[in-house]
Amino acid sequence: MKAVVVNPPNAGVEVRDVPSEPPSQGKVLIRTRLNGLCGTDRGIVSGKLTFSRPPLGYNYLILGHETLGEVVEGNGRLRKGDLVVPVVRRGCGSCLNCNLGRQDFCETGNFTEIGIRGAHGTMREEFLDEERYLVKVPNSLGELGVLLEPLSNVVKALNEVEYVQRRMWWRCGDSTYSCMTAAVLGSGPIGLLFSLALKTMGFNVIVANRRPPSEVESEIVEGIDAKFVNTSEKVDIRPDLLVDTSGHPSAFIPVLPKMKKNGALILFGTTGNESYGMTAEDVTTLVENNILIVGSVNASKSDFEAGVNFLLNWKAKYSNLLEKLITKRVKVEEAPDVLTRKLPGEIKTVIEWK
């Protein structure tokens, strides 16, 4: 069958035929419908993400972890024709968190991740998977289900912050977030999904980037009644919650002194190619103002399932606005091109499998 193949840690990507998986009792056969592309995929293709590795016994890795698939042969609660999204991380098998389904908090680091490290991904015509790793998506969501994997990471991060902020009363006098401001640094797919989720929670939302918004970004941000700011100009951001999706310390460190007391910072983005120092005064600001810093990665199956509810809510509330997050659709033969460069005006590019 046809697949998108890489050979980490070496750079490069190709579309070629690979053997189909042999039938396995208890596994579900899934036909891939859509794959989303993200910075992790491009980092693997460029050779910059050195932690990527093939499965044991293979000298190549099938790429792909953002997936919308259709069940071909069901098993258990899944039936032919059901739409599904696979959970990315698979547990190490030895730590308590992994054994309780929270492999996103693996204690050993010996987990695998489909299409990233130690396990083949889903950029192929079809694949087999265990039912416990598959999240059923309502057919009414259709192709919007391909947004579920990145959204699950957003859900997990926000759950973490809400949980830790129970250290005090962190809401308005009417028990909502309506008097609070969340600033999201970065207007890529993760940044916009954070913005949608925070707006749904009731925050006043600011989306920030070091450039003016694209036409699509403006339409989405305005459509959810948020505000876009260009930080290359002089702006005054004073958030209760700061979310960095850029991975650039130079983006979030200057905002720290402006954060409101008892606020929280979510660090989500990663780049690995910038050096930007903090001063002792910055540290004093964090200490004196009780600022919480949370680093977050990956998600559990429960986060995926909660993400389904967000998508259903947004599809009903924002009509076709959500579909604008998908800015480019390509055939599998075009995958090597779009995996080696970010397209102009891109938010989310997807590969269509026919």
Automatic annotation (TrEMBL):
Molecular function via GO: D-glucose binding; glucose 1-dehydrogenase (NAD+) activity; glucose 1-dehydrogenase (NADP+) activity; NAD+ binding; NADP+ binding; zinc ion binding
Start and end residues of each Alcohol dehydrogenase-like N-terminal domain: 25-138
- Which InterPro entries has this protein been placed in? ADH-like_N, Glc_1-DH_arc, Glu_dehyd_C, GroES-like_sf, NAD(P)-bd_dom_sf, Zn_alcohol_dh
- Highest taxon listed in the record's lineage: Archaea
Q: Which reaction does it catalyse?
A: D-glucose + NAD(+) = D-glucono-1,5-lactone + NADH + H(+); D-glucose + NADP(+) = D-glucono-1,5-lactone + NADPH + H(+)
Residues engaged in binding substrate: 40, 113, 149, 153, 298
- The EC number on file is 1.1.1.47
Binding locations of NADP(+): 187-190, 209-211, 268-270, 296-298, 342
Q: Which CDD domains match?
A: glucose_DH (cd08230)
Q: What class of enzyme is it?
A: oxidoreductase
Cofactor(s) the protein needs? Zn(2+)
GO BP terms, alphabetized: non-phosphorylated glucose catabolic process; protein tetramerization
Residue ranges annotated for the Glucose dehydrogenase C-terminal domain, each copy included: 143-352
The entry's function note states: Catalyzes the NAD(P)(+)-dependent oxidation of D-glucose to D-gluconate via gluconolactone. Can utilize both NAD(+) and NADP(+) as electron acceptor. Is involved in the degradation of glucose through a non-phosphorylative variant of the Entner-Doudoroff pathway.
Family according to the record:
Belongs to the zinc-containing alcohol dehydrogenase family. Glucose 1-dehydrogenase subfamily.
What is this protein's name?
Answer: Glucose 1-dehydrogenase
**Lineage of the organism:** Archaea, Thermoproteota, Thermoprotei, Sulfolobales, Sulfolobaceae
